[in-house]
Amino acid sequence: MDVGYHSYETESTHTAGKVITCRAAVAWGPGQPLVIEDVQVAPPQKMEVRVKILFTSICHTDLSSWKGENEAQRAYPRILGHEAAGIVESVGEGVEDMKIGDHVIPFFQGECGTCICCRSQKTNLCQKFGVNPLKSVMVNDGKTRFSTMDGNPIFHFLNTSTFSQYTVLDSACVVKIDTKAPLEKMSLLSCGVSTGVGAAWNVANVQPGSSVAIFGLGAVGLAVAEGARVRGASKIIGVDINPSKFFKGKAVGITEFINPKDLDVPVHEKIGAITEGGVDYSFECVGNLEVLREAFLSTHTGWGLTVLLGIHPSPMLLPLHPMELFNGRQIVGSIFGGFKGKTQLPKLAEQCMCGTLNLDEFITHELPFHNINEAFQLLIEGKSLRCLLHL
């Protein structure tokens, strides 16, 4: 990874305290192509930060939200996006941990630092700035910081809204990183890589010599593999119906691959046969209840742990009989890989810079920002892991 110093500039001395007109990709309705157009971005208010976004990418959560799958109540027009990196353009009253010119990563699972959850070492949840797909305005005053050129509100998304050249975030949802870190790669830490690596490190606590099965080899699943590889797992099994994912999987440490379409037995039976009864850890990264059950049954009785990472928009409940939990298997959900954004992301960025984690395999495409709809299509067709958009 290139760890040389990267110099970027902002126009902060001319724009601080003023409304900025910039380009953004606006979602006007579910499933409609995003429209690149001029929007107005208001100055940050108390405990807020306005950031110049330099790089952003598209996650399956953006895709699902764009389709209208994950939200019971939808606010439009809206600016989506939550994986990005940029530079602080200005800060609002009370912000002390960031200043103009700082290199930053936004993150959707905020950390206020003062609530009972933030003070606990047992969770990365935050009572005030936790992720909420229904939230579409700022916490400070219940208003938006985006508007159309004629003054109508444009709503926020996942505490971040990074599909814009400038965005305003609560300071609890953005963290300063080393200026020597390459921002184009650090954008991956906003969601996908942190979610997957953290699931392996923080949630499962994968041990050296252990066995792992990963269901779904998108960016999150491959990040789980990378995390398990770094932790010294001896067997990392990748499960996916798209064989093109297998080549990429080898680069992040996956040792064996299973395509369910090629089997005449359930996946968990195949895994049990090749692991002497099941893996130590399984990770469900698809958001499908049938896949979740296979992941659960693929773990070893007595101690197997299944970590749930996929987003499940269906109202259907878990496909488990309560008595199955008496066999020693456990299942747990994970959000943002258990990372506390402000406290832990700077250290994760350092680990990427020193080569502990390899981010190069995750960026499969790069496009200018105005080609964002093409980037969405690449993800829909399963051709990309992350398409980096240059703003």
TrEMBL record:
One of its GO terms (biological process) is formaldehyde catabolic process. InterPro entries: ADH-like_C, ADH-like_N, ADH_Zn_CS, GroES-like_sf, NAD(P)-bd_dom_sf. Pfam families: ADH_N, ADH_zinc_N. It is an enzyme of class 1 (oxidoreductase). SUPFAM superfamilies: GroES-like, NAD(P)-binding Rossmann-fold domains. GO terms for molecular function: alcohol dehydrogenase (NAD+) activity; S-(hydroxymethyl)glutathione dehydrogenase [NAD(P)+] activity; zinc ion binding. Its cofactor is Zn(2+). Keywords: Metal-binding, NAD, Oxidoreductase, Zinc. Residues 46-177 form the Alcohol dehydrogenase-like N-terminal domain. GO terms for cellular component: cytosol. Belongs to the zinc-containing alcohol dehydrogenase family. Class-III subfamily. Homodimer. This is alcohol dehydrogenase. It comes from Gossypium hirsutum.
